[in-house]
Every structure is written in structure tokens, then in C-alpha cells.
Amino acid sequence: MILVTGSAGRVGRAVVAALRAQGRPVRGFDLRPSGTGGEEVVGSLEDPQALSEAIKGVSAVLHLGAFMSWAPADRDRMFAVNVEGTRRLLDAASAAGVRRFVFA
């Protein structure tokens, strides 16, 4: 099973569709449903429980999820999601024995 974070985004939806077209098992992870069908976990990189659910049975992670904003008021949220959230995802992946992690 491949976990694709950011699966509801423009790139994430395309990647999930391409992987599924190849017959690969994929689980999407995003703040909102992607609408691509198939297995998904709706949650945030800031939520350890959602990450724990998303990472179960996964052999590889393709990390596309991020929070982007040019507003100075969003800097703390960008750090929380993009830095701390990625750290949480790496920790969850390591604890689950995930062998491949691609960060884009």
C-alpha cells in the first residue's frame, strides 16, 4: 500500500489516479476527500491519531501534503504543518516499518 499525502490537491489527485491506473494499492490522505474514489483517510498532518490510522499497512509514503500561504499571519501554521507535520509523518512511518519515503 502506498500512502499519498496531499491526495486532494492538483498534483496529488493526478498521482493517485496514475498509481491506481497501474494497479497499485493507494491510500489518500488529506484534509478533505479527494473525490478520486478508493481508500482515503481524511485528516491533518497535525493530528497524530489520523497519521497513525493513515500509515497502517503502508509500505511506502509519497509526501505531497503541505500548507502554503503568503500571509505573514500564516507563518506559524506553515511551520506546524510543513515542518512538524512532516516530522510526525516520518516518525509514524518509521514506527510502522515503512521502508520508502519520498518527500516532494
Furnish the topology, listing elements before pairings:
Layout: E1 2-5, H1 10-21, E2 26-30, E3 39-42, H2 48-55, E4 60-63, H3 75-95, E5 100-103
Parallel strand pairs: 1-2, 1-4, 2-3, 4-5
Helix pairs in contact: 2-3
If you had to describe this structure to a student in words, what would you say it looks like?
The structure is a single chain. The protein is α/β, with parallel strands linked by helices. It is built from 3 helices and 5 strands. It has helices at 10-21, 48-55, 75-95, and strands at residues 2-5, 26-30, 39-42, 60-63, 100-103. A 5-stranded parallel β-sheet has the order 3-2-1-4-5, sandwiched between helices. The mean pLDDT is 93.
Write out key terms for the chains shown:
104 residues; alpha/beta; Rossmann fold; 5-stranded parallel β-sheet; globular
Short description:
With 104 residues, the chain is an alpha/beta fold. It contains three helices and five strands. Strands 3-2-1-4-5 form a five-stranded parallel sheet, with helices on both faces.
pLDDT < 50 stretches: none
Main sheet: strands, sense, barrel: 5 strands, parallel
Tell me the CATH superfamily: NAD(P)-binding Rossmann-like Domain
CATH-assigned fold name: Rossmann fold
Would you list the SSEs in sequence order as H and E?
A: EHEEHEHE
N/C terminus separation: 18 Å
Strand portion, in percent?
15-25%
Count of helical regions: 3
CATH architecture descriptor name: 3-Layer(aba) Sandwich
Radius of gyration: 13 Å
Number of domains: 1
Strand tally is 5
Mean pLDDT: 93
| Text of the CATH class | Alpha Beta
* Percent in helix: 25-40%
